[in-house]
Amino acid sequence: MNEQITDAIRVRNSRAREAALAALGSVVVETTDLVEFQSRGRVLVIGGPEALEFATRLDTPLQAQVLLIEGEELPGVPVISQAGRSLSISGYLGAFLLQLGEPGKSNAESLRADLILDLGAEPQLAMPMKPPGYLVSATDEPSLNRAVEQLKGLVGTFDKPRYFSYDPSICAHGRSGKIACTRCIDACPAEAITSLVEKVTVDAYRCQGGGACATVCPSGAIRYSYPQPRDTLEQIRLLLKTYRQAGGLDPQLVICAEVDGVPPSLEPNLIPFQVEELASVGLEVWLTALAYGAGSVLLLDRGGMAARVVEALEQQVTTAGELLTALGFSQEAVQLVNEAALQGIGAGRLTLTPANFSANGGKRQVAYMAIDHLFEQSVRARPMADLTVGAPFGTAQVDEKACTLCLACVSACPGKALMSGQDAPQLRFIEANCLQCGICTRTCPEDAIWITPRLLFNREERNKVRLLHEEPPFCCTACGKPFATRSVIENMLKKLEGHWMFQDGKARHRLTLCEDCRVVDIVQDPDAMAQGVKGETFQ
């Protein structure tokens, strides 16, 4: 009897899954811009004697040139010898630039190519995801034959989606000349993201949609564009809703990458959801899927990701587990699994009333909506989750004895978590906005501020404006107008004690005056005016 019930449930779940997958077609995915490549077939083959031999195989529409790393040239093959010179490679399909030697030196040389075939024992470019048009091949006969066909297929005009969008106004990379968050740069397997100190720049031609940058970005400054996060979440919502309406039980979402091919055979209650790359969806997507009714979210790693991408995903999974544990749920509700482990997966870890919110907000807003729903559904939640370093949520604290309320941290904070007082010398803080990027700690001249990763589950507490530090204002000793804090004036007087310009009492007294009174005092002081004429203190 039990076997009959189990078989009936499997049939029921299988039909429900078919209905759910069929429903995905009704979601219209917003289009994105395209990036165009043009390749005329100029191939640069990098290697030793094997490169010379390979170049003779190529004919129209390919035109071969060899960059000889070692060995002797052969007649009839266009060859440039590296000859001990340094080599740097930039560019992408249709626009590669190779620089041999140091620019400006007599032995320097520049080469251009549409395609590069690297036959060296170690590729010249070491990043895990090579630029489009840069091929790496072994030198055995089958591999070389495949390389010929690949090169022939890369001649012409090609389009690919612009996978990302970037909003520098909320980027936590840098402020005031200080660099803080480098998560996107560290995670990108294509090395398509570089620092401009105050912001980053993403090379749309080298970007291949790995998505790890968007996953690790704490603010949502970099977002995946194809598909848009809201389209992805709408697909997941519809998938789970349709599965339940069709009578399916215990839905578990299996997220897998399209680049890994067709999903493996799964138990009927395991619903495959394909994305461009596994790392293109992160914490806010997984938690929203749980809020929408998934019993578990299983990230299927089939071994195709670069080590840095796996590391980034594991950090996100760790944060998800810490949040779920603090909420009173199993941390295994979100797992990174291989194919073998997937076959032994049991029942889903969560059983909740599905949420009905629309995930149309920014990255953090969506994450908080999902967390709030999970908190409301929990009966064992703690007030707060303690998180490990690297989590995008947390608090800030201030050493009141060291802080002078210069407010450098306020102007630097990309998330608007730190604020000044409206009419008083104050430093205020909204925890929900804190990205844990660390730019405040790098900006503070007094080393008076530090950050701690955590998450408050009470929405009101998380969004409340909290006072970190305040001081009574320092009032001008002439007119009584407040113009600074007492600690600022005291520190300034202390630091200028030995300065030759502030040895007399009048000059030191001038530091206690507001800007208007200071000008009046200087004008009325013949000695100060005389120094000003000399160009020493007054302009």
UniProtKB/TrEMBL annotation:
Domain 4Fe-4S ferredoxin-type intervals: 198-227, 394-423, 425-454
Taxonomic superkingdom: Bacteria
GO molecular function terms noted in the UniProt entry: 4 iron, 4 sulfur cluster binding; metal ion binding
KW Metal-binding (keyword) present: yes
Keywords: 4Fe-4S, Iron, Iron-sulfur, Metal-binding
InterPro entries referenced in this protein's UniProt entry, alphabetically: 4Fe4S_Fe-S-bd, 4Fe4S_Fe_S_CS, Fe-S_Ferredoxin
Protein's name in the database: 4Fe-4S dicluster domain-containing protein
Listed PANTHER family: ADENYLYLSULFATE REDUCTASE, BETA SUBUNIT, BLR5484 PROTEIN
